[in-house]
Design goal:
Elements: E1 2-3, E2 6-7, E3 12-14, H1 23-31, E4 37-38, E5 42-43, H2 44-48, H3 54-58, E6 67-72, H4 76-85, E7 93-98, H5 103-106, H6 118-132, E8 137-141, H7 152-162, E9 166-170, H8 184-193, E10 198-201, H9 207-217, E11 221-224, H10 233-242, H11 253-271, H12 273-287, H13 294-301, H14 307-320
Parallel strand pairs: 3-11, 4-6, 5-6, 6-7, 7-8, 8-9, 9-10, 10-11
Antiparallel strand pairs: 1-2
Amino acid sequence: MKLGTIQLRPGAALAPMAGFTDAAQRRMAARFGASFTVSEMVSAKALTLGDKKSPKLIENGENCAPYGVQLFGAEPETMAEAARLIAGYKFDFYDINMGCPAPKITGSGAGSALMKNPALAGDIAAAVVKAAGSRPVTVKMRLGWDADTLTAVEIARRCEEAGVALLAVHGRTRDEMYRPGIHADQIARVKAAVGIPVLANGDVDSPESARQLLDATGCDGVMIGRGALGAPWLFEQIAAMLEGKDIPPAPRLARRMELLREQVADMVAEKGEYVALTQARSSAVYYMRRLRGAPALRRACCSLTSLSDLDGLIEKVLEENPGL
């Protein structure tokens, strides 16, 4: 599968997630074979107003997978200007956010609020494609705003007409937020409506669930969000499944804790210990899933302030979960 002229390796892409997919998380996913990664969402308006924090979300460092920067906004001109402003950064493609359900994003008309306005969504896609130059543009969207506004097919067609190179479709409406269950049949309708690659997104947390989603939708690949948090080896497993190889087992607990330590240490090197550990708390929680004493371990994650705190927590995890 290609993203513009970029040849993507078989596997799953890492979905952009605010507060999670920083450079360290992206590098970890890339190490395990993510087909591409995407930044946390960056405000187009903030960029055009000279905000100093937004560019920090773009910086990527070394990453062995293609990397995209996700912009959000509700005005074609502002989105295009933001795309031009960041053109000098090192990244491979632009991504447009048409899926975020957070009220602070949709309240401005951006994110999944664009699913209510197909014409505006198409105009934004066209504006970014024009400003992007030789870089490809992708779009991440939902099925619609609610059950009465299933606009994904129409918006997908408008995006394709505008020159978008790839779509990722989350199988829920904004109204459904992240409630269990997705609508694979609606993702399949989007795939059937366009000729560009389409990735299916939602509830993938194993090679088996990835296979089921691909079979149900006919999509070209999958994108994984929350399912990959605390489990970066999932990318390696899905790639093996797609290539017809033996699926490697999930690592044992000691190795999982090593990966957590490596990811947080990477964050520390980039952001400093205090900032990194504050931000790493939510990621650390995901590494504690399905462990004995998980509620207490999650509470401990929420008080991490130093690498020594993390080392102590890892020691406790291994003591309380022998044999895993």
